[in-house]
Amino acid sequence: IPSIAMVAFTGQATQVLKKNMPKAWARNVMTIHLLLGYAPETFERADGSEGQRFVPTYTAANKMPWDVIIVDEASMVAVDLWHQLIDASKPGCRFYFIGDLNQLPPPIGQGILGFALSKWPVYELTVVHRQADDTANRIVDTAHRILQGEEPQFDDTRNPSWRVAGMELKHNSDDAHEQIVNIARQLRTIKYPDEAGPVYDP
User: In angstroms, rounded to a whole number, what is the distance separating the alpha carbons of residues 162 and 152?
Assistant: First the structure.
């Protein structure tokens, strides 16, 4: 039986993975940095003083034991982190990326997912299951319209669950930023008659 690890860039993403897996699999779900065994290392700076940095325990000289590594939220994996994964993987290890180019990119550096999509076999999920029914929110429909270059359908009346509202932003980025912040502040003060809390509470 092959040993399988399921990883993601953030701890929050790994918690979502754990919730959707059998309890027996929990120890196989972790962040990429935990998979690589990141640990503190003392080093000497140019001025002679000591510093500390985190480095992977698993490297080209010390391979990981996994036969299969499934990477969730793969859009957040940067090229340098990918090279660390490849270097530390034993021969024959298979990788599966699950991700969306339209989601969050890596905090620093170029993402690897675009390169992987151009080189590896790709299977695309085109049917939305999680928010597919008519009573669900319209975020998915709006996002798909934007991706296809279409204008979203804005709501004229308040929807009990969700509302897609359109507004025109100023062309100057500083002015647009101020406009967005002001709208968010206003939403915190607006309350509907049948609701106790504000419309929007960050």
Answer: 14
